[in-house]
Amino acid sequence: MQVDGRLDGGLAEARAGASALEDLGYDSALVPEVAHDGLLPVALAADATSRITLGTSILVAFARSPMTTAVAAWDLQRFSGGRLQLGLGSQVRPHIERRFAMPWSRPAERMREYVGALRAVWQAWQEGTPLDFRGDFTQHTLMPPRFDPGPLDVPPPAVFVAAVGPRMTEATAEVADGLILHSFTTARYMREVTQPAIARGLAAGGRDRSSFDVRASPFVVTAPDGPARERAITAVREQIAFYASTPSYRPVLELHGWGELQTELWALTRRGRWSEMGALIDDDMVDAFAVVAEPAGLAEAIRRHIGGYADRVGLTLPSGSDPDWHADVVRSLRESTAVPSRDIPEEPGRPRR
Fold first, then answer.
1. Which of 28, 51, 52, 111 is spaced 20 to 30 A from 44 at the CA atom?
2. What angle do CA 75, 80, 83 make, to 5 degrees?
3. Can you give the pLDDT at residue 337?
């Protein structure tokens, strides 16, 4: 199993953070686009490392034109020697329209076309063919020689897409190299909703499951019993509550019979009562969304939680963790393999707290 690390802190932490993840044995160092730009740290990380894959998880696609993303990704792929993994996400409508002032419509169709546009631009540069991409949302038909960066000596970047709902998942499996599962997912949702959507998308694209990677990133709580563990569980309850308040993620809750909780949490956000939300997340929900384990058993608990449905795992461990233990968790996960059939067990089999 591939193990992906998270590279936070923007430009200031990019070099040291990526180097540390490489030393700990991670396969990838991925930059989230939250309070900092999602692409600039990748360049610094590439300059500070030699083995580890580098990329974004996620870059907000709809805040940029496909051409803008294609240019930056091409430069980073060349500069890193072929180590870029471009992770894209749609974000949600209020952010695209009100934060980025960009258009929003038919996100699954838009993302399918966005990936197609990237590939068309890259093909024009790599093969020297005329650029003639005509989609419903963007058209790219002009590429004078002066603006053509020329071919790479390595393959084009791998493209991963984040998805929760079945339509985005299906589009992702049809055109992308991999799927980024949101932390706000469960084994049951993966089994009953996500996995069938992956199968439909792969069939539509005439592709095989072996050509497609799935990355899971469950919430993680790891600490011995005591105050530190309870604080960590409280923090995870708050994270789950934050995502559970989002209307776009309500179908995950509804599958488990928790749909009305989304309405209640959304009402609390509208009144600014953020501190009260975590208390509404009970132990059953924590068990469904998170891995809770003592440090010695963390790697095995993550494997049980994921089951056989992921090829990669995004891992975020507490800052200040013992480096030897941290490296051992990464090594243990890397040495594990997914169930070949990619079946998801009916019961995750996690021990109760």
1. 111
2. 105
3. 66
On average, the pLDDT of the chain sits at 92
Does residue 227 belong to any structural domain of this protein?
A: no
For residue 327, how far is the Cα from the chain centroid?
Answer: 22
**How many angstroms separate the most distant Cα atoms in the chain?**
64
Q: What pLDDT digit, counting tens, does each position of 194-205 carry? A: 999 999 999 999
CATH code, domain with 49: 3.20.20.30
The C-alpha atoms of residue 130 and residue 121 are separated, in whole angstroms, by 9
**Would 165 be classed as within a structural domain?**
yes
Contact status, residue 104 vs residue 96, Cβ threshold 8 Å: yes
d(CA 305, CA 347): 9
> Would residue 44 count as lying in a domain?
yes
- Give the contacts of 119 (CB within 8 A, at least 6 positions apart): 156, 159, 175
Compute the average pLDDT of residues 3-31: 94
Residue 9 vs residue 136, higher pLDDT? 136
Structurally, the chain folds into a number of domains equal to: 1
At 339 the pLDDT is 45
Mean pLDDT value of segment 101-130: 97
Question: Is 86 within 8 Å of 155 (Cβ atoms)?
Answer: no
Domain range enclosing 66: 2-221+291-335
